[in-house]
Design goal:
A 6-stranded parallel β-sheet has the order 2-1-3-4-7-8, sandwiched between helices. It has a two-stranded antiparallel ribbon with strand order 5-6. Helix content is about 35%, strand content about 15%. The longest helix is centred in the N-terminal third of the chain and has 13 residues. With about 230 residues, the chain is of the alpha/beta class. The protein has a single domain, classed as Rossmann fold (3-Layer(aba) Sandwich). Helix 2 crosses helix 3. It starts with a strand and ends with a helix. It comes from Amycolatopsis thermophila. This is Pimeloyl-ACP methyl ester carboxylesterase. It holds the Pfam family Abhydrolase_6.
């Protein structure tokens, strides 16, 4: 299967480099994306918002002759889901990596601090301790060296969804910083954070205990979890 990897905020295609070999060894063809404005710290991010990022993922789907699997990490998860909304007949499965879908009209994370039109990777103290599990000093240094400021509009603009068929596309949520049991409890309680996830018709929750960036902290295990999801 063709697997399109959508990175989370501040990251590009290189963030998947330790995950890709597991997918290719399982026979999958991998397309790791770098979304507009994330090419380098000096890239022009003027006019880049969430619609441009969704359009880039949709273009990657359209470039393939056969249905694809979409894998979205963190903030890339809602963007990948918006691409499912745009092309529900072209996506065979979506895999959320410590992420989930948003309801129409929600923004990905408007709490991130911005400097002008950029939302740079915050200090580590900004994140919850659970997010940082397994992220050693060496991995933090590597991630920060690779990090590129996110276009602030991507974090703040609402994602608009319109095609109910998106909810019929099978999904897997790989739960790392937040355990699957906690996600199930939120669904049972009707929490707004998981309202769209609760509306999806075919969802598997899979635990991968680590922090928010398993592509750095447990890449081989993340690759194996994605491969297992694609067998479903």
């Amino acid at each position: 299967m063709i697997v399109i990897l959508v990175p989370g905020f501040w990251l590009g295609a290189s963030s998947w480099r330790d995950v890709e070999p597991v997918l290719t060894a399982a026979g999958h063809t991998v397309r790791a994306l770098t979304l507009p404005g994330l090419e380098s710290a000096s890239a022009d991010r003027t006019g880049i918002g969430v619609r441009e990022h969704i359009a880039a993922v949709v273009a990657a789907v359209d470039a393939e002759r056969e249905p694809v699997a979409l894998v979205g990490h963190s903030g890339g998860g809602p963007i990948a889901y918006a691409a499912v909304d745009a092309r529900p007949d072209r996506v065979a499965r979506i895999v959320f990596v410590d992420a989930g879908p948003l309801v129409s009209g929600a923004s990905v994370n408007d709490a991130l601090p911005a400097v002008g039109g950029d939302a740079p990777l915050p200090d580590w103290s900004f994140f919850e301790e659970a997010d940082l599990t397994g992220l050693t000093a060496e991995l933090r240094e590597r991630m920060r060296a690779e990090a590129v400021p996110e276009p602030a509009a991507v974090t703040r603009e609402p994602i608009e969804l319109s095609d109910e068929r998106r909810r019929a596309v099978p999904a897997t949520v790989i739960c790392s910083a937040m355990p699957a049991a906690q996600v199930r409890d939120l669904i049972a309680a009707g929490h707004p954070y998981v309202r769209e996830l609760a509306a999806m018709r075919d969802v598997d929750l899979v635990d991968l205990p680590t922090g928010h960036w398993p592509q750095f902290t447990r890449p081989a295990d993340l690759g194996a979890a994605i491969v297992a999801a694609l067998r479903s």
